[in-house]
Structures are given as C-alpha cells and as structure tokens.
Design brief:
Elements: E1 6-11, H1 14-18, E2 26-31, H2 35-42, E3 55-61, E4 67-74, E5 80-87, H3 88-104, E6 111-117, E7 120-127, E8 131-133
Parallel strand pairs: 2-6, 3-8
Antiparallel strand pairs: 1-2, 3-4, 4-5, 6-7
C-alpha cells in the first residue's frame, strides 16, 4: 500500500476554538488502492476486521516541521495496518479537540477513526489514546493523547 492511496479528513474540531457544543472528533481515512491489499491489512486475529483493542494510532513528525506520518498499527503483531502522510497542524488541532472532548464527556472514546474504500466503511473504532513521536522516534508526551492511569 502506498501512502498516496490514502486521503484523510478530520471533522468535529472547530467547536473547540469557537467555544461551541462538544462533538466527538473523527479521523476519516479513505483508501483508493487495491481492495485485497487493504482487506488483508485490516484482518485481526480471527480474520475479522482488527478490533479497536488490537490497534494503536500514532503520528510521527518528519524533519520538516509541518509534515509527518499517521499510522494505525496492530498492537498484537507490531505490524503497520496502514500509514499515510498528514499535516502536523491538523493532527495537533485534532488531538486538542479530542482532549477537550474527553473533558466534556464520559464517553468510552475521545475520538473515532474510520477507514473507508469505495464508500464502504471497513473499520470504525472509538479510541482514547493517540501517541505522537518526534522525528527520532521519541514519544512527545505534551502532544500525545494518553488517558489517565496509563503508563508507557
């Protein structure tokens, strides 16, 4: 899978700056590559779509300040499920909105991440953790979304 096969859309983040009604931030990822490749990457331990508990969402800054790579990884195997280029400012705005949403609700997840292909939603997970790494691979705690009580 190539990073160019993905598009990313972020919603429900504007309410934070505007002081509006909280809405769950969502990262929607669209894939326009070969179906069988994506299906095999999304397969979990029981050949169904990988569960939310089996995945981690991460962002790694590149050396260029405003660029990076968003990835979903399989927590069980350590394999990349997918990765795509994403604007750093957009990701950081998203994390701020997810953090604020978590402060306004007792919802299970602070944000939602979806993966679609040809208009079909293949994955939809509610998540609370979003880890951000610098270009050297070190965790950047002040930008990461880490639920209370979680030790890394």
């Amino acid at each position: 899978m190539r990073r160019e096969n993905f598009d990313i859309h972020v919603t429900n983040t504007e309410w934070v700056a505007a002081g509006g009604e909280p809405g769950k931030p969502t990262v929607a990822i669209e894939f326009d590559g070969p179906n069988e490749v994506l299906q095999s990457r999304l397969a979990g331990t029981d050949d169904a779509v990988v569960d939310a508990e089996e995945t981690d969402v991460n962002y790694r800054f590149h050396s260029a300040e405003n660029e990076g790579v968003l990835s979903i990884t399989n927590r069980i195997t350590g394999d990349f499920v997918l990765e795509l280029n994403a604007d750093a400012d957009g990701v950081l705005d998203f994390i701020r909105a997810a953090r604020a949403y978590g402060e306004h609700t007792d919802d299970d997840g602070r944000y939602r991440i979806t993966v679609e292909q040809d208009g079909e939603r293949l994955l939809a997970h509610e998540k609370s953790t979003f880890l951000v790494y610098n270009e050297d691979g070190n965790l950047v705690r002040q930008h990461s979304l880490i639920p209370g009580g979680v030790e890394l």
